[in-house]
Amino acid sequence: MxxxxxxxxxxxAAVVSFGIAGCETTGNNGDVITPSQTTDNGPINxxxxxxxxxxPLNKWLDERFEVDYKHMTPALIxxxxxxxxxxxxxxxLPSGAxxxxxxxxxxxxxxxxxxxxxxxxxKMSFSTDESGTPTAVRVEG
Length: 141
Prior knowledge:
By secondary structure, the protein is α+β, with helices and mostly antiparallel strands. Helix content is 36%, strand content 25%.
C-alpha cells in the first residue's frame, strides 16, 4: 500500500510539473505572448456570425478578397468594396468612434464584417422578408 501511495505521488508531481511547464508560451525573444498580441493578427473566428441557410448569401459572405482600409468610420465602411454589394440597415452607429484600419491579402466578407463588428461593438443580424429570405444586414450600434 505504501509503494502504491509513493508511486501515485510521484506520478502526480510529474504530471503537475509537465503541466506547469507546458502552460508558458514564449515568442522568439522570450517574451510571454499575451492574447491581445495574437488575436489582432490571427484568424478571425466567425463561428455562428451572420449564420444563414440561404446559400447565395453564404457564398457572398465567404468569398475572399484583398482589402486595405485606412481611417474608416462607421458611416463610411459599408460603402467600401467588397462590402457595398448588399443593403445594410444601420441604426445608432457610433459617432467619434476610433478609426478602423485593417489590411489583409485574404479575408472573407464575413470575417471583415466580424472584425468591424468587434472593433465598434456593433450587433449584426439579418433582416428577412415574409418567407424568411434575408433582405439586408441589420447593423446596430
